[in-house]
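Risk register update: the risk of archive-format incompatibility is retired. Evidence:
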Amino acid sequence: MMPFTSPLTWNWQEFPITYQRWGTTEPAVVFIHGFGASWGHWRKNLPVLGQSFRCYALDLIGFGGSAKPTPEIEIKYTFETWGQQVADFCREVVGTPAFLIGNSIGCIVAMQAAIDNPEICLGVAAINCSLRLLHERKRAELPWHRSFSASVMQQVLGYKWVGNLFFQQLARPKVVRKILLQAYRRQEVVTNELIDLIMKPAADLGAADVFLAFTRYSQGPLPEDLLPRLCCPTILLWGTEDPWEPISLGKELARFSAVEQFIPLEGLGHCPQDEAPEVVNPILQEWIERHAREELVVDHNDFDGLGLSRRRGDAGTRG
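Archived output:
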């Protein structure tokens, strides 16, 4: 496996955005990381799937090597913002529609991008989708003490000095390792390399403000809001041992008509693409190849150069 070259940079709304790419064969695939992660969380997937597809992984604004502008003043950190970033990335960098593959909150971003800009999306693969259990509409379903404590914590973190102190305590290698050991079931995968991937961006100016802004963000869409509106092929993959997004709740998302498959990943945690790429990569490859072969035909004259026409009129046709 060839080593990665230095990440590339794309300017979006005058902010530098970091991304990586691998492969030259159509169709295009865009990977979207989860909270606190970066394109590096796909380092085990890009070189493998890049042998068959034209693959990209970008850092959402506020994360990884991308700019971290001041919340609310320079930019709003919402799923609508990140969805637009992904859609513009497909237009300006990828140059064609793409399959969008997300992990955790990256799944919500992928769905939002596909709904707001359906012409850029060939399909959505969601890996351990964030259920957003602390969303204001879901707190009513929590025990009162959990709902109350979450609300109090968000208010307390609104005080800048408290929030910064909290972030400083979290952004330490020992603490990050402990958190990752909760998320991953294969403990040997939690390496120094992985911890460095998380730690390095945390030292950037503005990283604490972004972290606190998202921690206090309890509005916006839920996956059950977005899935009924998707009009592209959708697949859900779920680690059965995810301690943060229980698979019992994840299975409820399979009832939506856009979801053609729900695939449990036995014995895996919250980030299966990194924990067991040998399991996840073949699933994604088969799904992409099937839809590229059966439902899509490239025509670079369509959609203002985005290069998509469909053999069938219904973008939601199930495989």
